[in-house]
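Review form for a predicted model. The reviewer records the input and the model, then writes brief findings.
Reviewer: anonymous (R2)
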Amino acid sequence: MRDNEAMSAADNLDELIDRLERAAAQLRSGELSADAAATLVEDCAALAGEASAELEHRARVGAEEPAPAQDTLL
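Model under review:
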């Protein structure tokens, strides 16, 4: 993964985490109606799915790249 792509992916994952944390805080507050809480839980499930996909993508890309300081033998 190139540096720009890595930064973008990190920013994306950080944003997803922030959104999940904000949603969790709203749910814990107890200030939401039952319908609003249910909708927020559904949104959290979608966000968690996005985060999972991002992590899987990173794992695949990381497996394709050689480890740092691992030169190929000639």
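Findings: The chain has one domain: 3-62.
Further findings: Residues 12 and 29 are 26 Å apart (CA to CA).
Recommendation: see findings above.
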